[in-house]
Amino acid sequence: RCDEIGLDGSKKPQGHHCRTYTNAMKMRSALTYGFGRIYERGNVAWHCSDGKEYKGNPSISTQVSRYMLALKRRKHASGELAMSSRAITANHIRQIFEFNNQPEMLTPVPFQQTSRNSQKSLDDWGG
Prior knowledge:
This protein has helices spanning 21-38, 62-77, 83-87, 90-100, 103-106, and strands spanning 47-48, 54-55. The protein is mainly α. The chain is flat, with a radius of gyration of 23 Å. Residues 107-127 are annotated as: Disordered.
């Protein structure tokens, strides 16, 4: 779903929507958790222990790690930006600066501890 190359090695059609590298990392993380916790495979890399039986977590295998690195390179080469690169813009920084430099924000107020359950509004989340 996240790669421009199909399982058979062919390139997917031009209009096909591919998901981001971030989606691929989330899917791998879910698989790692599922195999590790639900199927009790732990956090040991997938390996053949005695030439017959495979043990460990398949999502932590060398092949999956190599694929994820190659996918990251392909996504970067195709122009996809990492989430952190596009998360904050100059406009966001300006808004944060203006908010923090309002006169009422420059005056310290005494700390009042509140309960997590006594949230009065959506703006009352930072203590």
